[in-house]
Design goal:
spermidine biosynthesis; polyamine biosynthesis; 8-stranded antiparallel beta sheet; 371 residues; zymogen; alpha+beta; S-adenosylmethionine decarboxylase; 18% helix
């Protein structure tokens, strides 16, 4: 999503971009992503409370610190989904996922989230931390805490002892930063299959960009159908979305009766176009879903990651496909495998092939084997 930021009750919200004289407008579409898993140091998971018990006004106050606000929300038995002025928030019983774009101060909200978890849910320990982002186009415009990854790592280390920091990809191209922490706890939750697919797309096809503007669609639902997002999200998912004025799009979805989610954010300005897709769903093949995402947005550059724990069959399959196969129409420039504390990670970077190089591969193919 995109548009300028303006002050409203001491926090930034997305508004129609207004350029000051001689000032070039820019919006950083790439998000900062924080995922926190909580537990209790005193009782087992059966007796612990839920993060969903945190009152709405306390969530609003936390987001004020991050410099964003809730536009609307939806809920099922397992997850609370919030579309924000700058991206998304998901809260389930023991997990918080906060994803913010622009010049938000995401990590400034970390101590507040931890305090709220202890106060309202009795979850006084952070069991796992995942903080990630791609390199920014304009890091000089970010708040001091987020201007560089070293500063972010130093800040996170002040909360978590023995955290791990990674940089994946080429230092001369797009790259992806990751910070992780995991604590062995006395009362671990029952282990479930878990995986996450994230696709970060830059330099989108110009024919795609106008689909995420008010000139093309009336509202979020109209954009969801006419831009082809409906072909990406599994049937039966509950969706809520926002089409910004004059441009930009955000969508959250969750699969009924589960805490599985999907989220999409689009910054459609040609000079700095960007889109992201993230999901932990296991209803459809992740590789097939990836191809649908790419057919929808037609980016020139792709950064992909797949996390999977050791009992996630679909996550492991997606990792293997990402490792073994090319994506039709794209050339893989980098692929890396990392074994983390409790799961594995595959990272890959792709660029679109020149037209003469892609004539032999069709978007209908399942993909070609890598040499």
């Amino acid at each position: 999503m995109s548009s300028a930021t303006a002050t409203c009750e001491n926090f930034a919200v997305q508004t129609h971009p207004v350029k000051a004289p001689d000032e070039e407008y820019f919006f950083e579409g790439a998000e900062k992503l924080l995922e926190l898993w909580f537990c209790s140091s005193k009782i087992g998971p059966e007796g612990a409370g839920s993060l969903r018990s945190i009152p709405r006004d306390q969530i609003d106050a936390m987001l004020d610190i991050a410099r964003c606000k809730i536009l609307h929300s939806k809920h099922n038995e397992s997850i609370d989904s919030y579309v924000l002025s700058e991206s998304s928030l998901f809260i389930s019983d023991n997990r918080v996922i906060l994803k913010t774009c622009g010049t938000t101060r995401l990590l400034a909200a970390l101590p507040v989230i931890m305090q709220l978890a202890g106060t309202y849910a009795g979850l006084d320990q952070v069991q796992s931390v995942y903080y990630s982002r791609k390199n920014f186009l304009r890091p000089d415009l970010q708040p001091n805490l987020h201007k560089n990854f070293d500063a972010e790592v130093e800040y996170l280390d002040s909360f978590f002892e023995d955290g791990h920091a990674y940089c994946l990809g080429s230092l001369k191209q797009d790259r992806w930063y990751l910070y992780t922490f995991h604590r062995e706890v006395e009362f671990p939750a029952h282990k479930q299959p878990d995986h996450t697919l994230e696709i970060l797309m830059s330099d989108l096809d110009e024919e795609v960009l106008h689909k995420f503007t008010k000139d093309f669609a009336v509202d979020g639902n109209d954009c969801f159908m006419r831009a082809g997002i409906d072909k990406i999200i599994p049937a039966g998912a509950d969706v809520h979305d926002e089409l910004f004025d004059p441009c930009g799009y955000s969508m959250n979805a969750y699969m009924n009766d589960t805490d599985q989610y999907a989220t999409i954010h689009v910054t459609p300005e040609k000079e700095f176009s960007f889109a992201s897709f993230e999901t932990n769903q296991d209803l459809v093949c992740l590789y097939s879903q990836t191809r649908k995402v790419l057919q929808c947005f037609r980016p020139n550059k792709i950064l992909m990651t797949v996390f999977a724990n050791d009992i996630s069959i679909k996550g492991k399959d997606a990792q293997q496909q990402l490792w073994d196969r090319e994506l039709p129409g794209y050339r893989r420039t980098n692929v890396q495998f990392v074994r983390l504390e409790t799961e594995t990670l595959v990272y890959a970077h792709f660029v679109r092939k020149a037209p003469q190089d892609s004539t032999s591969s069709s978007d209908e193919d399942d993909g070609e084997r890598s040499d």
